[in-house]
Amino acid sequence: MINDSKVLYPLIDFYLGKGKDGCGRTINEVRNNDLKWLEDTHNYIQWLFPLREKSQYVNAPVLDNKQIELFKENPLLCHELLLSFKLILNFYGFSCDDKTSNIIIMKSPSFNDRKEIWISSGNHNYLRITRVIKCLSILGLENYAQAFFECLQQVFIEENIDKVAFQYWKQAVN
Predict the structure, then answer these.
(1) d(CA 92, CA 119)
(2) I need a labelling partner for 26 at 20 to 30 A (CA). Which of 15, 46, 167, 173 fits?
(3) Angle at CA of residue 100, ends 94 and 103, nearest 5°
(4) For the segment 29-50, what is each residue's pLDDT rounded down to a tens digit?
(5) Considering the entire predicted model, what is its pTM?
(6) DSSP string of 90-130?
(7) φ and ψ at 96, to 5 degrees?
(8) Residue 108 · residue 101 · CB < 8 Å
(9) How far is residue 162's CA from residue 44's CA, in Å, rounded to a whole number?
């Protein structure tokens, strides 16, 4: 089925490095941008972390049951999703230790600098974080979503995180 994905599933082709997103970028082109680009550009996150719900951005993918099944069954798609997740963790100032079955998301040395970008009332990155958690949960990486939420829970206690945003994160992981 993956061989026929170009016609049916542009998202799968994008993730396999065979296609482009709605703006004509490959997955590697998106991932190779700097942190400022990741903050200032708003139409890539839907491709790196797709959901079942339609996005406000034109040409953003919408997950269906078959795509979800493909992500869960294909180790390459899973690996690529993890690369996207680790990129976004770096963007927020976190790192991931997944060398054992006990996945740990923790603050990286850049956290204090990076938190200035996203920890503020009503920040659009709170919505992005919700999207990341939901996507990981939907596409079979629930353990990573849970580890991310546990890290965010600690950050919520230590920092001035919007309580409404935190509730969305909590709902997304459940």
Answers:
(1) 9
(2) 173
(3) 35
(4) 999 999 999 999 999 999 999 9
(5) 0.94
(6) HHHTEEEE-SSSS-EEEE-TTHHHHHHHH-STT-HHHHHHH
(7) -125, 130
(8) no
(9) 24
